[in-house]
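Example 283.
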Amino acid sequence: MAVDTVLTIAEIRSVVAKWRQAGEKVAFVPTMGALHDGHLSLVLQARAEGARVVVSIFVNPLQFGPSEDFARYPRTLKDDVEKLQTVGADVVFAPAAAEIYPVAFQTSVINKKMSEGLCGKFRPGHFEGVLTVVLKLLNIVAPDMALFGKKDYQQWRLIERMAKDLEIPIEILGCDTIREKDGLAMSSRNRYMSAEEREESALIYKGLSSAKAAWERGERSLDKLTALFKDSISQCPRMKIQYAEIVDRFSLEPAGATVAEKSLVMIIAVLFGDVRLIDNLEF
Ligand code: AMP
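Predicted structure in complex with adenosine monophosphate:
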């Protein structure tokens, strides 16, 4: 049976209400479409939880800066729905921008701390846009659980924080990053790269992995660990590191100069011309 696509808030609420009345669990996977196996893994995990699965596809204008790729962000709804069918999603919610942001819309969600470092430093307003749309979508769908990829580590932690701070009665799950064969984290933006860039981009995961391997061998100098990542990226002069930091996994605060405890994550962003790639690895 084809996956239903619904466009309005009223329709998705009525679909979910029927499942609720039947005593079913509901899981929610918010996306911006241009789906790949990383997105599909979230749906599979939601299915494994025994839940009905709602997937939203909405390219959220609020989370793009004025010089970012909102206009050219890939929009592939028909293909997306076909892919979702193969993994057993139950319904797709694909609202128009005016459904989510009617003319009178004027409220937003601001995180005052964890949003400031890492990507937040380079994308002003981005996480405000993300948190605002995610809270709105959570209120619309009202699921039991919502699934997010650790690929967007800071985003996942910020959503977890928002759910705690604002008493949102929804379980927030973080799911492992799905990678290409050469280690590159799957992303809707990977298609922006040329074939040559795509090949060179494998250096990102190589660099993260060599830092992690050194950590596992007992290296505890964060500078040395970060330098291993930088060495890897420097093999491709066109690739520029925007940031590479080792931070506490939970607070995303910078870890001290040398550390012994094991709750860290290395988070990075690199620029390849105007393509921006993010990734991370937990140590
Ligand atoms: P996006 O469409 O980029 O907004 O992503 C929608 C959801 O899919 C977010 O929770 C992302 O973290 C997650 N996601 C994106 N890429 C991956 C990946 N390679 N592995 C796992 N989850 C991912």
